[in-house]
Design goal:
Layout lengths: L9 E3 L6 E3 L3 E2 L9 H13 L4 E3 L14 H11 L8 E7 L8 H12 L6 E5 L7 H17 L13 E2 L18
Parallel strand pairs: 3-4, 4-5, 5-6
Antiparallel strand pairs: 1-2, 6-7
Amino acid sequence: MMEFAERAPRRRLGVGGPEVPLLALGSWNTWDRMDRDDAAELLRLAVDRGVDLFDVAHYDFGPHAENAQTDVLFGQAVRDAGLAREDYMLCGKLWLWEYPASSFAEQMRVSLDRIGTDRADMVVVGDFMERPDLRAVVTDVAEQVRARAGSRTGASTTGRPGTCCSPAGSPPPRAWCRPRSRS
């Protein structure tokens, strides 16, 4: 195995967001293709080197309706690695494919339950087949931010295009998210 002596550099995410590593570790069809011990070792090594931002989602919507287990396996790898929730940041996803039939509140509840945690530090809203009602999307995200910030769990938003994030539990600045289209 290669050894790296340095930690990943960090930058502030958005205007008032958290300091995050320049590299994050995503997970779509990653953890289900790894040995369980290797997955735990990878997470432990990543956190030890400062790559402590993990992009994880429940993939069972729209074109990803495949009953994927990658989020469940990620949660198991976190526990196997002995990571405390304070050791890493979690970026979740809210999908627009079946929105609003599949509400953001339900998507977050299912995703967090499957991972085995009580909060995401940030979320990305994205992927749609038809142009969504952006006003409704932003309103719903802001409602989730307020609800979760009030309970000191969940995700918050910043005013940066393409992102919905800030430290969990902090008061939401303004909700302005631009979903990415599937091109």
